[in-house]
Write a structure and sequence with these properties.
The structure is a single chain. By secondary structure, the chain is of the alpha/beta class. It has two domains: 214 residues, 3-Layer(aba) Sandwich (D-Maltodextrin-Binding Protein, domain 2), CATH 3.40.190.10; 200 residues, D-Maltodextrin-Binding Protein, domain 2, CATH 3.40.190.10. It is 44% helix and 11% strand. It is built from 18 helices and eleven strands. Helix 9 runs antiparallel to helix 10, helix 9 packs antiparallel against helix 17 and helix 10 runs parallel beside helix 17. This is Extracellular solute-binding protein.
Length: 445
């Protein structure tokens, strides 16, 4: 899972300085005293096991799905330690800082899809080539997913983990109180084929829904869902920036502004604590949800949300999120890290991860395994998530990625849209604020 569009990003230069300071305070690779294999020591624990450190962001799911424990049982000489950063806008600048310094890096580093182009085009020499690693078979991956982590000269700097075919999660209890259908097939028909129909459904909800609740969590999440249904968004196929005039961006912005001006959103910032708490409190009725979001909802809504949430088809096919893992050349235990990275991303493990955490595989052979093809999610009303998301994946466009995708998406969502949604600025003012933020990010890096 994780984020790009999933979590916000502030100015890279400022964040990198903060990250550098935090890295120095936390201890560099050369200075660690951690007896269990912290950065910079021999990479072994007191029992002589080789320690593999994995740097991730958000809820990646490997630990929760038991994959680390399974691997360590298969390889008792290995100890796996995960270093989790909650937000990718904190994680990624720190990663860039450590790559520049060739220190402070974990043995395996996660990379969000919004950052993979920049890594593959500007940082490829800092990562091991995994294209011919033992246990890695290119044919296992979706062609476009493999290509995203591969350089023009054929070096694969990171292996694809999940993808994010879009669904729409909704609260059945809140829909019922608002007089809307609750059956997932009927819910999907409410807005099938058109995001404008989703807005209209929101107006119906607002008219009769429970007081103190909103139709959807945030306009930024809605923007991302609409925008990611287009192949060309921020860059065109030639790699040129088009965000100011992109039909995808303009359409997504218009839908998001309709939701704000119609009072349909809870005015929340995704992945902030208030957003997490809103899941627990049941204060919004829908959220655009790729598969990785299901695990997040389950964790944040807790037992009280079980069987109240369900998932239906989104208005249009789209891909939101998806990640990669790579092995930095500056890591201590590269050979063992490569083996673990290959194992974690193999179809069998991707299927297990989907079964436990709802992260949808980027390896089609996994779709034929029972863990995916017959998957149902009991937390979400026993929804047939394997079938639902596999169907959604068929229509996903091959997204054109650029080096500043994550910064651009975040500027629209967490600068421009939030100014309209939370500060009462006009859509025109929000648009100009987003463009200013993007221009600074693009010109500065």
């Amino acid at each position: 899972m994780r984020t790009s569009t999933r979590t916000p990003h502030r100015a890279v230069v400022v964040a990198a300085v903060v990250a550098l300071g935090a890295g120095l305070l936390g201890g560099c690779a050369e200075d660690s005293d951690d007896p269990d294999g912290g950065p910079g020591n021999s990479g072994t624990d007191a029992g002589g096991r080789t320690t593999i450190e994995i740097g991730t962001f958000g809820v990646f799911g490997y630990k929760q799905a038991g994959l680390y424990d399974e691997y360590m049982k298969l390889h008792p000489e290995i100890l796996i330690k995960e270093d989790v950063t909650e937000r990718v806008d904190t994680y990624y600048p720190e990663l860039l800082t450590h790559l520049a310094a060739n220190s402070g890096l974990q043995d395996i580093q996660a990379i969000e899809v919004g950052n993979i182009n920049e890594i593959a085009t500007t940082q490829a020499d800092k990562f091991e080539d995994l294209s011919k690693a033992p246990g890695v078979d290119k044919s296992n991956w979706l062609d476009w997913k493999w290509a995203q982590g591969t350089t023009k000269d054929g070096r694969t700097v990171a292996l694809g983990t999940d993808i994010g075919p879009m669904g729409m999660c909704y609260r059945k209890d809140l829909f019922e109180k608002a007089g809307l259908p609750t059956d997932r097939e009927a819910v999907g028909r409410l807005w099938a084929g058109d995001w404008q129909k989703y807005v209209e459904a929101g107006k119906r909800y607002k008219a009769k829904g429970p007081k103190g609740t909103a139709f959807t969590d945030s306009a930024a999440g809605l923007f991302a869902a609409v925008n990611n249904g287009y192949a060309e968004r921020f860059y065109d196929a030639d790699g040129e920036l088009i965000y100011k005039d992109s039909p995808a961006v303009k359409t997504a912005w218009d839908v998001a502004m309709q939701a704000v001006e119609g009072g349909l959103t809870a005015k929340l910032k995704q992945f902030d604590k208030a957003w997490d708490q809103a899941y627990a409190n049941g204060t919004f009725a829908t959220v655009s949800c790729p598969p990785w979001m299901l695990g997040y909802i389950k964790e944040k809504a807790g037992a009280a949300g079980e069987d109240k949430w369900d998932v239906a088809a989104a208005p249009k096919p789209a891909n939101w999120g998806g990640s990669f893992i790579g092995v930095p050349k500056a890591g201590r235990n590269k050979a063992e890290a490569v083996k673990l990275a290959a194992w974690l991303t193999a179809p069998e493990q991707q299927a297990k991860l989907f079964d436990k955490q709802a992260s949808f595989p980027s390896t089609p052979p996994a779709y034929e395994l029972d863990a995916v093809s017959g998957a149902r999610n009991p937390y979400f009303g026993d929804a047939p998530t394997g079938r639902l998301f596999a169907e959604a994946a068929k229509g996903i466009p091959t997204l054109v990625l650029g080096p500043k995708d994550q910064q651009i998406g975040t500027a629209f969502g967490d600068v421009g849209i939030l100014q309209v949604e939370q500060q009462g600025k006009s859509p025109e003012q929000g648009w100009e604020a987003a463009l200013k933020e993007i221009d600074n990010a693009v010109d500065g890096g």
